[in-house]
Amino acid sequence: MSSATAGSAAQAGTAAAPLLPPGARSVNLTRTGVFVLLLAVSIVFPLAVTNQSANSIAFQTLIFVCAAAAWNIFSGYSGYIALGHAVFFGSGAYAAGIAAEHWHVTGGTEFVLLPLAAAVAALIAVPFGLIALRVRRHTFVVITIAIFFIFQLMAFNLNGVTNGTIGLNAPFLLWDPVTFDQRFYYIALGLALATIGLSWLIKGSRFGLQLRAIRDDEDRAASLGVRAMPVKLTAFVISGAITGLAGGLWFFFIGQVLPQSGFDPLFDLTVALMAFLGGLGTVSGPLLGALIIEPAQQYMTTAFSNSYLSQILLGALFLAVVLFVPRGLIPTITEKAGGWLERRRPAEQAGALAVAKGEKP
Amino acid sequence: MSALLRAERISKAYGGVHALDGCTVVVQAGSITALIGPNGSGKTTLFNVITGYDRPDAGEVYYGGNKITGASPQRVFGAGIGRTFQLTRIFPRLTVLENMIVASQYTGEAYRFRNPLARAGGPADRHRAMELLEFTGIAGHAGKLAGTLSYGQRKLLELSYVLVADPAIVLLDEPAGGVNPSLINQLAERIRELNAAGKTFLIVEHNMEFVMGLCHHIAVLDYGTIVATGPPSVIRNDPRVLDAYLGTAEDDAEARDDGAG
């Protein structure tokens, strides 16, 4: 083949310049439909289902939707797998608890402390990130785990600040017990929606593209003018702040935080697993993962009154994801659906493409 | 013509191995200069030193009269020196167009505040990206993940996104290596066009046909030092070059003669 024919073939392709793979539009439409449906269901859920334990599970699921989406904003987009986000969750809970006690905050005004929980988590994320983000891959994972255990140890031992093993209690809320869960549910729903919205906004943004370029080849990205450290650190801080906010809200709902419940190693694994199951680095993946895993875990814990069983199943699920859907459910399903749609209407699309190229159909 | 890029008396050792030993290379503005030499003669090391990926033990790099020795890859790229890698370094899980937009970060206004949450790649960036992809002939793949491209297409993509920042000089590390012949011709054609428009090239390449047909000036590197420089017609017949590099052909001829005799 001469260079001339290669050139003309390339030009024919250029005229159409398809930016989306075939079938992507239908998949996008389906995705929007599913999301709207999910939103409608999540809004009416506490009105339709009055069972208290179901509402409690729903609230905790939303907390994890939030935490998994926040984790994904950093780890999913940048490729740096952090296993220490419980640091932010626990710090958020403790910050809210300590402030409430110190300033004698009572009743509903405690929600004013939520931004403080986020701010404290963000403040912790800065030095945490500056240390951990100097290394990559496995070393980064190990450092995040180490820092997590430092924080758990501090929560156990800094009695003057954290009240040691006794933990802290949240201010008592004089809410009607019937609507108690419902109110928390809607606050969590708002937070979860905001987090997913932010995740979506970041993914398509310049900032998000810089993060994803870092994920693929950090040095090359840096040489092309992406300032890697500030970009990574910003994502880490945003992710930490949201996780801290979720931690604060969770604390007000549960009413108590202990070193082992605030700084829970299972939290680190669970948020990561949720993102892996749904699809690392996708907007909807962590949402799907949290919607599957958290209710299942909560249900099993209450149904079998044995938390070990749910932990064993969680481990088994991790293995299954790695073995069978290593890229996660959302990318796998999207690809399958895209391929199916493409096969279903090959003639139609070939025609459309030919028209777009300015050829006679 | 004036020297756009000068690497003067560069030395670089890894452990006890002298990858570069007082090597001096001068690239004239507006030229296509080739850097040839046997494997392990230090060509890629010299590229790494020039583009900031490696620090030299001794010697200085000048770009348009300014010393850039030891500057970060980012600064070197920002200053106007683009570079591709022997084993292409693209972003495999970004689309081809997204690859181009990553490279458009640094078009001289990287330090000006831009809304970080704005959609990646404004219309101007996209337009420029598509223009360059059309120029290199891979615009039809703009929406594909870069990881799905063939080896030759990846090389074209890397060249395209290096061009996004409009560098004054482009360093190509084995652009024709492992690429099919029709793409090699396409590549040579594009380099010629860019050169005619004023871009300077420094090319490391083993494909002699490609080098001799394209380059104005050739520098031959052997054991970390420059053993010969000159236009292709001179280099082709230089005994030192034949000895160091093309000498294997003579050996082969002798071996064949021996075999026949």
Characterization of this structure:
Chain A is mainly α. Chain A has a two-stranded antiparallel sheet with strand order 1-2. Chain A has helices spanning 3-16, 24-48, 52-78, 86-102, 114-132, 137-157, 159-162, 177-204, 206-223, 228-254, 259-262, 265-278, 285-304, 307-324, 329-344, 346-356, and strands at 168-169, 256-257. Chain A is built from 16 helices and two strands. Mean pLDDT of chain A is 83; it is low at 1-19 and 351-361. Chain A has a single domain (52-346), classed as ABC transporter involved in vitamin B12 uptake, BtuC (Orthogonal Bundle). In chain A, 78% of the residues lie in helices and 1% in strands. Chain B is α/β, with parallel strands linked by helices and 261 residues long. In chain B, 39% of the residues lie in helices and 24% in strands. In chain B, the strands form two sheets. Chain B has a six-stranded mixed beta sheet with strand order 6-7-8-3-9-10, sandwiched between helices. In chain B, strands 2-1-4-5 form a four-stranded antiparallel beta sheet, with helices on one face. In chain B, α3 (96-103) runs parallel beside α5 (151-164) and α4 packs across α5 (151-164). The N and C termini of chain B lie far apart (52 Å). The interface between A and B is large, with 40 and 51 residues.
Compile the SSE list and pairings.
The complex is a heterodimer of chains A (361) and B (261).
Chain A (H helix, E strand, L loop, with lengths): L2 H14 L7 H25 L3 H27 L7 H17 L11 H19 L4 H21 L1 H4 L5 E2 L7 H28 L1 H18 L4 H27 L1 E2 L1 H4 L2 H14 L6 H20 L2 H18 L4 H16 L1 H11 L5
Antiparallel strand pairs in A: 1-2
Helix pairs in contact in A: 2-8, 3-8, 3-10, 3-12, 3-13, 4-5, 4-10, 5-10, 8-9, 8-10, 9-10, 12-13, 12-14, 13-14
Chain B lengths: L2 E12 L2 E12 L3 E5 L6 H8 L7 E6 L2 E2 L5 H7 L1 E3 L12 H8 L19 H14 L14 H14 L4 E5 L7 H16 L3 E5 L3 H7 L2 E6 L2 E6 L1 H6 L1 H22 L1
Helix pairs in contact in B: 3-5, 4-5
